[in-house]
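Lab notebook, bench 4. The sequencing result for the construct came back, and we need a structural model before the next group meeting so we can plan mutations. Quick request posted to the team channel:

Model the 3D structure of this chain.
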Amino acid sequence: VVLLWGLGVGIVIFGASGDLTARQLIPAFYHLAKDRPLPPEYRIIGFARREKTDESWRRELRAALDQFSRTKPVDEKIWSEFAANLFYCEGDLTDAAAYQKLEQQLSSFKSPPLRKNLLFYLATQPSHFGVVIEQLHNAKLLHKDAGEHGWQRLVIEKPFGHDLASARALNAELTRFAHESQVCRIDH
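Done. Here's the predicted structure in token form:
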């Protein structure tokens, strides 16, 4: 797992106030933390429009975990350690200033891997994929040529277009700013 994550990773979930995050993503990351395959250093940043603080988002996620976790009860010690790595960034997907705010939040982490090794999970409508990726590129958070910039990956949820032509158009839009090897298409 260290080879996969490295020494640290910053995970940004776009659409963090949605059902997918509460029901599946956070419980999955919690169980990774519980089973210890997460890197020594990690941060999970939720990005969404709704006004929340780090603490209010953590409380929401804890309530969701109590409801949706595959193991119960939630281990308080594990949750406490895990929750300390959860942060929230309020912003609109189309607002360039919100991505600058996200970049500042990532830059505030002292560890270089947390600032450079980034996994962007797009739990948004497919119509927003291109906008988010272009904004990430413009904010210098997504680099097509990694090098000294660490590594970045994009996780894209299905559906990926509504037919072959729209899937090809979306793929062309994504690969303007990311190599194909940086894009992971998944079905939850």
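Helices lie at 2-5, 19-35, 54-68, 76-83, 96-107, 112-116, 129-138, 164-174.
Will bring this to the meeting.
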